């Protein structure tokens, strides 16, 4: 038997936003690497579709529906969770809006989903000791707001930059329990989030050509990064923002 | 909805273009100042002022300001 440093065997891993896009791909990839997956999202039907794609050679996968922006539901989720060896925070939303239209309520809407909800979940998982010693947390940030500043992306980028900043503080503070906290900063990834019509399909196709590796990312490209950060292969890595963007931000 | 007011709101998203160039028949994507950011501003302006969500494709498929006005008016009803 080959010793695989990327194996997630014996680990229980929470994935938020598991009903779609990067979250779904990550949940599936984690199960294929041997993890027991706790999948959460708002939409039960779509979450069920993810569960159906998990590797069923592993026992004990769970689905828990919750809207993380609701304090009660977030609290309920935390109480229902088993002890975790890892977590991937993939739940999020985006908006494309020039800054001059970025009123307080537009910022609040984005920060509630992309910043306050994951930060509160992270806080509770640590405080209530749901995260085992040596657990690894992966936050989905973005190159937007940290490495790239495309017009129209300011509100989204600010929410992700704020999250990335908390990641680094958490990495310092949680190290006392050997809990590692890292983020992934993806470039544009082909998920339902980017096909909402504000940007046309033609514009997206044109934009994809600006990526040195010639294409947008696939959810699996990001899921594989999460596997690395969750696994013992990255045991000595914390507070790092892993850019996976086909070379866009070079 | 009033087309004159729509044209003014439309023109307000531009900084360099002479206001006199904005009429119902203006082929707006041919204006030198037109950019993808202007397109995003038009979408946001329509949401703010008219409570209507238009898509990038609505802009691509509109030749003149009047064409886009018709799209917004149709979605409002």
Give a written overview of the molecule.
The complex is a heterodimer of chains A (250) and B (77). In chain A, 38% of the residues lie in helices and 17% in strands. Chain A is built from 7 helices and 7 strands; from the N terminus they run βαβαβαβαβαβααβ. Chain A has a 7-stranded parallel sheet, sandwiched between helices. The N and C termini of chain A lie far apart (39 Å). Chain B contains 4 helices and no strands. The relative contact order of chain B is 0.20. Chains A and B meet through loops of A and α2 and α3 of B.
Question: How far apart are the first and last residues' alpha carbons of chain A, in Å?
Answer: 39 Å
Structural class of chain B: mainly alpha
Q: Low-confidence segments of chain B, ≥5 residues, pLDDT <50?
A: none
- Percent range of helical residues of chain A: 25-40%
Structural class from helices and strands of chain A?
alpha/beta
The main sheet of chain A orders its strands as 3-2-1-4-5-6-7
Number of strands of chain B: 0
Strand percentage of chain B, roughly? Answer: under 5%
The number of distinct helices of chain B, counting runs of at least 4 residues, comes to: 4
- Indicate the proportion of strand residues of chain A: 15-25%
Total discrete domains of chain A: 1
Biggest sheet layout of chain B: none
Shape of chain B: globular
Helix tally of chain A? 7
Order of helices and strands of chain A: EHEHEHEHEHEHHE
User: What CATH first level of chain A would be assigned?
Assistant: Alpha Beta
Count the E strands of chain A.
Answer: 7
Largest interface, Cβ cutoff 8 Å: A-B, 13 and 13 residues
Biggest beta sheet summary of chain A: 7 strands, parallel
The CA-CA distance between the termini of chain B, in Å, is 11 Å
């Amino acid at each position: 038997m080959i010793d695989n440093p990327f194996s997630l065997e014996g680990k229980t891993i929470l994935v938020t936003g598991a009903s779609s896009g990067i979250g779904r791909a990550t949940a599936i990839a984690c199960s294929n690497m041997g993890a027991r997956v706790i999948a959460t999202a708002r939409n039960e039907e779509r979450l069920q579709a993810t569960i159906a794609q998990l590797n069923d050679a592993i026992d004990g996968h769970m689905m828990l529906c919750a809207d993380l922006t609701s304090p009660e539901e977030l609290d309920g989720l935390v109480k229902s969770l088993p002890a975790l060896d890892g977590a991937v925070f993939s739940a999020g939303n985006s908006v494309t809006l020039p800054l001059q239209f970025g009123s307080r309520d537009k910022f609040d809407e984005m920060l509630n989903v992309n910043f306050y909800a994951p930060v509160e979940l992270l806080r509770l998982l640590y405080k209530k000791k749901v995260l085992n010693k040596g657990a690894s947390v992966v936050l989905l940030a973005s190159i937007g707001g940290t490495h790239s500043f495309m017009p129209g992306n300011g509100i989204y980028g600010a929410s992700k930059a704020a999250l990335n900043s908390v990641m680094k503080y958490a990495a310092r503070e949680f190290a006392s329990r050997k809990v590692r906290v890292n983020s992934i900063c993806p470039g544009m990834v082909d998920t339902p989030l980017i096909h909402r019509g504000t940007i046309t399909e033609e514009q997206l196709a044109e934009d994809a050509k600006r990526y040195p590796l010639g294409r947008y990312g696939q959810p699996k490209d990001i899921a594989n990064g999460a596997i690395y950060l969750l696994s013992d292969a990255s045991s000595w890595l914390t507070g790092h923002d892993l850019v996976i963007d086909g070379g866009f931000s070079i | 909805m009033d087309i004159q007011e729509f044209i003014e709101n439309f023109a307000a998203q531009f900084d360099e273009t002479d206001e006199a160039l904005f009429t119902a028949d203006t082929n707006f994507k041919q204006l030198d100042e037109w950019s993808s950011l202007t397109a995003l501003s038009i979408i946001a302006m329509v949401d703010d002022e008219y409570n209507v969500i238009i898509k990038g494709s609505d802009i691509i498929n509109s030749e003149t300001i009047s064409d886009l006005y018709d799209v917004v008016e149709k979605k409002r009803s």
